[in-house]
Write a structure and sequence with these properties.
Helix content is 76%, strand content 0%.
């Protein structure tokens, strides 16, 4: 059972990564077209022009909610979607390592210990 889940996990993770790249590219393109100054302020990041500094500036822009200050409802929706996607992708990435059945056994053991 575990091997079958692992075989499904990697293709799902790869497909999700492709979706993430496309979504990030879409968000960056919208910022570039609609808000060139903001795009410049976050280092003009792109798929092929990426550095630690650019990534940090973009992540800071995304997670601090600076996109809300721009007053663009469609960009706001895209940024929120990217935030939700990032959280879900992180969960998917770590899912095989969580060993939920061991955690459940531990919780049952704690609950049944005499006090």
């Amino acid at each position: 059972m575990q091997n079958a889940l692992t075989q499904l996990w990697f293709p799902a993770l790869f497909a999700a990564a492709v979706v993430g790249v496309l979504l990030s590219t879409l968000v960056l393109h919208r910022i570039k077209m609609d808000f060139p100054r903001v795009y410049s302020d976050i280092g003009s990041p792109s798929l092929f022009n990426s550095s630690i500094k650019n990534n940090w500036l973009f992540l800071k822009f995304l997670w601090k909610g600076d996109y809300r200050k721009l007053g663009n409802p469609s960009l706001t929706k895209l940024c929120i979607l990217l935030q939700v996607y990032t959280v879900l992708y992180t969960i998917l990435f770590f899912a095989p390592f969580l060993q939920a059945d061991e955690f459940a056994k531990y919780l049952l053991q704690i609950c049944h210990e005499p006090r």
